Amino acid sequence: MKKQLSTSTFKLVFAWLCLAWFQPTIAQDAQFSQYNRSPIQINPALVGPTKGKVRVLAAHRNQSSQVLRGNSFVGHFVSVDTRVLEDSKQSLGIGVSALRDASGESNIGSKSLNLSVSYLRKITGAKGAHHKLRAGIEGGIVDRNFDVWDVRTAAQFGVSPIFDGLFESNFLHTDINFGMAWQADFPNGNSITISAAGHHLNRPSVSLFGVDNLSMNIRYAVHGTAELGLSDTWSIVPTFLYAHQGGSKTINLGSSLRKQLGETNSRKYIEFGLLTRWMDTNLSDVGFSNMAVVPILNLTWDRFNIGFSADIVTNNLRVPGSFDNAFEASVGYLFGQLSKQPSQPKLH
Fold first, then answer.
1. Distance (Å, rounded) from C-alpha 8 to C-alpha 10?
2. Beta-sheet pairing, 326-335 with 54-63
């Protein structure tokens, strides 16, 4: 007869396993490959559309669905932002955004609701260039959850009651983010945007076990994108996003070709892009390694925008014989009168 684990021993083993599982990953925020289509998540300074009066954006991401079946990693993002108190020199941007991510059978994840405010100052530069300096701050509430009752191990051993009091399966915390951005629009139609942000500046505790030193790591992000004309109907849109959080560093590099479908300066175009993602998890001496390539297709037609992408895993995390991709879709719509001035590239 096999010896059974006592309740206290099982608690200890389970706690150790959970700590081992969460320790390397607590620094990871939910990420979208089409990050230019959810600018508020990148940087609160990017609140306030440069076209239209009100901008509505949404994104959905499903990762590892073939391997995990119904327990895949799922993310949803939606935002609404607008400009207020606007004149020829300055404006305020106000936005509300919500993010939900969940993964695995235990449904571990978070739900957040954020309010963002940005200030934009317009500056006329040399040779007709228009510069915009932006600063933004964001505050929100995050609900983190872990549904332990859906973990099969507990049901298999018939010891579900021992989870009572072991950890907090659901708790709230506040979140504070800050960012700055510089935008430039040139008379020849070219434009560029560079931004930097710090997320989780208040370093909230995210420990399920009430361990004080397991606070959320600050995530630093540097982002850039541009639109450079190649001809009257073609332009190239390079982009990058670097994020550093705890022991994890991620670099996204890519570019897309934009084809004008209507008259010059009209908002009718199609984009074909390719993004590569590199990651250094600090868990080995390998350094940055290629994680995925991401083909992206995007269509903009006046006020409406829709995009699709697929992460194709390239490293050894790929399951042999499977199509273990992450699929993502984004939509956007602009309300109000559309501005005829050059707009921030690729941010709808």
1. 5
2. antiparallel
- C-alpha 296/C-alpha 273 separation (Å) is 5
Structural contact between residues 107 and 101, judged by C-beta atoms closer than 8 angstroms: no
CB 77 within 8 A of CB 99: yes
3-state secondary structure the chain: CCCCCCHHHHHHHHHHHHHHHHCCCCCCCCCCCCHHHCHHHHCHHHCCCCCCCEEEEEEEEEECHHHHHHHCEEEEEEEEEEEECCCCCEEEEEEEEEEEEEECCCCEEEEEEEEEEEEEEEEECHHHCEEEEEEEEEEEEEEEECCHHHCHHHHHHCCHHHHCCCCCCEEEEEEEEEEEEEEEECCCCCEEEEEEEEECCCCCECCCCCCCCCECCCEEEEEEEEEEECCCCEEEEEEEEEEEECCEEEEEEEEEEEEECCCCCCCEEEEEEEEEEEEECCCCCCCCEEEEEEEEEEEEECCEEEEEEEEEECCCCCCCCCCCCEEEEEEEEEECCCCCCCCCCCCC
pLDDT at 114 over 50: yes
| Strand 304-313 versus strand 326-335 pairing type | antiparallel
Rounded CA-CA distance 224/130 in Å is: 17
Q: What is the mean pLDDT of residues 145-150?
A: 60
At 211, the pLDDT band (50, 70, 90 cuts) reads low
Domain boundaries, the chain: 7-335
Q: What is the CATH number of domain 7-335?
A: 2.40.160.40
How much is the pTM? 0.80
How much is the pLDDT for 10?
40
What Cα–Cα distance (Å) separates residue 265 from each residue in 89, 233, 277? 23, 10, 31
Structure tokens at 252: 């996204």
